[in-house]
Amino acid sequence: MLEVQSPETASQSVLLALEDGIRRIRDPREVMAFAAAHLARHLRVDRVCYAEMDEAGERFALQVESGNGRLPPLAGQQRLDDFGDFVGESMRRGEVLCCDDTAAIRGLSALQRRAYRDSGIRAHISVSLVRDGDSRAILAVHHADPRVWTSAERALVRDVGERTSASVLRTRVAAELRRSEARFRQLFESIDQGFCIIDVLFDADGHACDYRFVEVNGAFARHTGLGEVVGRTAREVVADLEASWYELYGEVALTGQPRRFEKQTVGMGGRWFEVYAFPLEGGGHQVGILFSDISDRRRITDAMRESQSQLAAVIEHVPVGIGLFDTEGRYLMANPHLQELVGNVLPSREPRSRWRAYDAEGNLLAPSEYPSARALRGETVPPTVDFHIYLDGVERWIVFGAVPLWRDGKVAGGISVAQDITERRRVESALRESEWRLSTLIEGIPLLVWRSSDRGHWTWASPQWEQFTGQSQQDAVGLGWLASIHPEDRDATLQAWARAGEREEMKVEHRVRQAGTGSYVWHSTRSRALKDPRGRIVEWLGTTADIQQFKNLHARQRELLELQADQSRRKDEFLAILAHELRNPLAPLRTTLELLVEAGDAPFAPALARMQRQVDHMVRLVEDLLEVSRITHGTIELRREQLDVNEVLQVAIDTSRPWIEQAGHQLEVALSPHACIVDGDPVRLAQVFSNLLNNAAKFTHAPGRIALGSRREDGWLRVSVADNGVGMPPERIGEIFNLFTQIRQEKQQMLSGLGIGLTLVRSIVELHGGRVRAHSDGIGHGSHFEVELPLVNTSNPGEDDMATDYTTPGNRHRVMVVDDNRDAADAIAEYLEFAGHDVAVAYDGEAALARFAGFAPEMVLMDLGMPGISGYDTATRMRALNSGAALTLVALSGWTHEEDKRRSREAGFDAHLAKPVEVATLRRLIEEHLGRG
Known about the structure:
Distance between the termini: 181 Å
Number of strands: 35
Oligomer: single chain
Strand order of the largest sheet: 13-12-18-17-16-14-15
């Protein structure tokens, strides 16, 4: 018997069958498929489909469909509004849409009617499935023919959709839980995070009050700092643990809902934990906890938040425009400076009538070539694009650049930077104007002006070049201009260009051919590098100037200097010869005077003393002339040794004391109590200090006061000589060390000299690495000289060669005197005879050799510059004639340079004495070589 069911009963059967069928299905898509097929069979429709909408509710994506093949399949995503504007609105509102015949729908556009034709749908019921206020899924029933839907059918479709949607959600959640649990179980032994299983404990009132650790992984102790916790309760492990932890885990155990949270615990030293707690199936009140110690991360996050705050402050105040734009080119953020620059109107990819953009070469750019558009294509655009805008009627230039922002390998937006270059543009415009004016000026000046690229390749030459050389600008460019340079000067010119890059300038002098005459004229070429704003050399600008007149003047000046040098050399030679020739008449005078003084002729003693002082003064003048000659020729030499300058000062005092006492002056001496060791020549230094003492005595009115002092200070020895004499004008102190300088005052009757002594002082001191200074407060206020010498760090000064006590020998020696100056030879012979020696005299070399064998001298004092046989040859022949007895040969000469002494040693001489010979020197020489009595 056929039983007829009511629509309500039939629907309940369908729903029960649906519930029974999907209860055992665990895959969401299988639930959708079962429900669609079940509903299609019951309603006998051509297709039932289950689709899901996007978040905006504008599109739907088909998940499953079940049909009999009468309708073409739906594929991919489609827009709801393609089937009518009311379709999308209805589905987004969560309504049930029912249509008996789509051909009868009014208000559809042509495209919407075409969508129905292409899909074959003539009748449909579409149910929007709403969850928590959001429409997410659609269950749709489609039929290829018009059909009048009953209210029971509409209700059934809605109920099937809601139950299917709920089941899909449950299966998805269950599937996700299963996958999650499987992952946690798999990760339990390998994860780096802490993991534990706990058993939550409840009190009599059902409140969570503690939990016991059932199992922990190896990372547990590292994240918590707790060890040996399995089997123990949380209160036993951490007595101060907050109760909120028990409550959270108790909630998870009772509700079966997992919890994910971040929480800090004071009971464990303020650590922060990121926790995922979930119930364990079949475990009673057991909860699984996956956690990490995020204390460092929280600190980093806080630091990053602070850093971001600081960065935001920097971006806000930095004097550069900075903006952030999205993938559509829309600006999401602009700092105040950028807003100020553009007036809240930012350049986008859309053309703007007020914006014009230019590249570095000045080409107008389309909006698609704006920095932001290029950045969205993945390019990094440096700030080289200049935008020309008018803001509130004011012209402004802004340079823009942009860089892309990447996310997951795709461009997610970009950052732009901007800077106001209006002033720079004004300067560049003014520069172009200036360059135009300069070019006009260049064409009017008499210099040859040109421009060049690297290494002298000309790019332009002024008209003056062609006028002077006859070479056109076309021929001069590149290296063509070299054809106008003298062949001998071309290599030097190219070498100057090769060095120019390092110095950023080029200088060279060369000869340039002059058109018409064909002659070469000296020119000076100078060039400087011109740089762009980035510091790169872009070109060279140079000038070539006629210096022929300067060359002529320089040549004349060189001739005059050579003539002056020759005259100076002749003067020096004359002084040297004059000094040498003066020695010859001085030698017999000095020796005779000393002989008369030692003879002790009382009536004439004062006269002899005056004569001796004047002769000594004459000798010193001659010695000074010779010293000047040596200094001028650079032949003065120092015999250095480590010596105590205090001892040298004693020698200088002894040398100058007769002058000081004769003038009636008082000498005050204050020497350093410590040894003052320097590396120097004792004779030369004694000469320095005696010259200063003599000067003080010479230029001080009697009775005067002279002070000599020495002191050590900062590694230097400072020796001072001060007097209360005539003084000097302060403005002329710088002249007194110049050669032949004499500062004379009106009505001055002081004893003067040649103006050589202070020149010698400065030269000798500087040869010792020292300095000498002079000071005077003016005429009548005395003078003060100070010599500075570098001290030697030693406590063993050299022995004082001046300390030897020379006495008159008590035995007789045979001495021969050989000199073509008869007076000089006779004077020395008379002194030697007076001293008790046997003396033989010869006035030339031949006579000396003739008497040599018969006299057999122990010492020969011989002049070197004799006519006929010279002293050198005579000495050599005497050595050959000597039978082997001891023989001392002593050279007498007005020439005492080191070269003269070396030559006398090579000739066989044992000593070299300067004319005129002092009696004390002669006596000491005899004692050293022939011995005391």
